[in-house]
Amino acid sequence: MLPKEEYVEQAYFFKTLLERIRQAMPIQEVLSSIEEEILATTNLPKAIAFLRSELQSQGGFARAMERLDHYFTPFQTFVVKEAEDERGKFDLRTGLEILRRDAEYRAGNPSREGIFLYQFESICRNRLHYDAGLGATAEDPSFDPPWRDWVLTVRRQVGLVELADLIYVRSKHYQGSSEAEAATKVALFGEKEGRIALANRKKDPLLLFAALQRQLGYPEVPRPQPVDQSHEKIDQMSRRIERIEGRMKLLEEESRGGIQIERFFTAPESPPPDAGE
Fold it and tell me: Which residues of 218-246 are buried (b: 16+ CB within 10 A; e: fewer)?
């Protein structure tokens, strides 16, 4: 884990980058200006300088973040890589908001349960690749070996076993009633989380996420923003109005004594002269 001031500056970096991208500013210029704004006593200015150089040569900075694995977490790199994938539909702006909230949470008093649930819910809600995403989560520096093993178990069993069951059997609430299980498996979730998981079995997983988010206090996961189709709808309405106006004119002409059909026809083109003429 990095010092608190690093996460504070990371949160500012992702927030400012997102705001200026929304203003249609070139990313190269944005990175240069933010590099000057970041607290110089942290390592983030050096990281931004490296991202900027890689962006100029590679056209993206996911690969640069991957090379800075001592500074950026695997999940941070995964989110940016998903956003840069031209085959996917994941928007970089949503990714930056996910990373901003993640950094703000780490700058406070994060729990391992909160870090896992926030990252996993981010993967689910945004329909990212489960295998790569949970693999990145398992490598988070905040997790010890029991946590890493359990996250990899979730990766193998997601879609086959409910998340509520996976949480419940590794909670103190379950292990308090199972001495054999308590002797072999470390409890990763507390009594409260176990009760919540038990209460949400066979239900929509989003209800489980919502209850755990309220109780554990980790950030709400940004929802994918719907595409603004207002301009397209206005164009469609304009075309419909034009068609309605045309029909109304035809009705008016018919009421005045008939429609002049001749104006809908064009005079036939004169045939080309014969070559012998």
Answer: bbebbeeeeeeeeeeeeeeeeeeeeeeee
